[in-house]
Design goal:
This protein is 84% helix and 0% strand. It is mainly α. It has one domain.
Length: 74
């Protein structure tokens, strides 16, 4: 496995999961959402990146809050 494959695997494994989340909500594979996100980033000169980071932050906060609720209920 070369360096690029290792990097791609690491990004996919430890990424924010925003594209996968949107894909599950819409009912299409996350890889398709990721591909269109990349295309729109090139067309819109990076402005979708801001939306991506905001969504990633929101998803992480949501997971943190749900974990805290589970700890309190146990």
């Amino acid at each position: 496995m070369n360096q690029i494959d290792k990097l791609r695997h690491r990004i996919e494994k430890y990424g924010f999961g925003v594209c996968q989340y949107f894909g599950e909500k819409i009912g299409i594979p996350g890889s398709v959402v990721r591909k269109y996100f990349i295309y729109t980033s090139f067309i819109a000169v990076g402005s979708p990146l801001i939306l991506y980071l905001i969504t990633a932050f929101w998803l992480n906060i949501r997971q943190y809050i749900s974990r805290q609720k589970n700890i309190l209920l146990d």
